[in-house]
Amino acid sequence: MTDQLDHSPIISEVFGDAAGKMELFHKKLEDEGLIRGLIGPRDGDIIWERHILNSAALVPFIKEMLPDPETDRQVTIGDVGTGGGFPGIVLAACFPAVSFDLIEPMERRCEWLAEMVDMLQLTNATVVRARTEELISKKKEFSRTSGGHVDSSRANAGRRGRKPGSRQAQSEHFNGYDIVTCRAVAPMTKLAGMTLPLLKKSGRLIALKGKSAAAELEKARKELKKNGAVSTRVCQAPVAPQLEPTHVVIVQVR
Ligand SMILES: C[S@@+](CC[C@H](N)C(=O)[O-])C[C@H]1O[C@@H](n2cnc3c(N)ncnc32)[C@H](O)[C@@H]1O
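Above: the input record for the complex with S-adenosylmethionine. Below: its predicted structure, written as tokens.
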């Protein structure tokens, strides 16, 4: 099957140095994505647009939040419900200096993600087989045992000088992420409780949402407040020239 955007200059324009990795990822999805239940039956010739470029729409928003996207190994991003790799695999390829946890409970999908991490040599990405609720409990437990006071030398133990991609969520000192990303995991009313408690102080959720973004935020006011949201915004996010833009919801916690 031929993807409408195969060999398009858009791919190198959007991905720059990561274009080669994205070509490999695309080929693997084309060959195995459907039989392994990672993409839909009608996605075969639109994998670039629907999945890979759509995920990359988050890149400028993350860039804007990073002190130094080229070198910052201290920033940690948790991608909740990564599934076939969206947006987590795409983002990890675009930000090789930032540490990503790809959080996914389904064994089959975790196996796929681990294969992709190896194939694309994403040394900054770790597959974490877990439900977000388990990580939230672990973070609460760490906060409780540290008396609510996060001793940065403890929380960062093993982080300084660690290789990007070491298992931050699997450490007993897990104290949350600077940024949480997600796509197509749950409506905002549910997503607030699944993602905001995973954030560190002043951390931000960046969720890819469709046209329903503003309505979902409005409906989830109570859940957002309950989970510490202090500001919310919806932004239109360009996918690529001549392609329909998508929407991004950004929520900051206190
Ligand atoms: C519809 S899929 C979307 C996958 C991918 N994000 C995408 O956009 O293609 C939802 C994913 O969220 C995962 N998921 C569901 N509940 C979860 C939870 N409580 N914690 C973490 N992941 C969850 C599922 O296993 C599934 O892979």
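Notes for the reader.
The two ends are 48 Å apart (CA to CA).
The first helix runs from residue 9 to 15.
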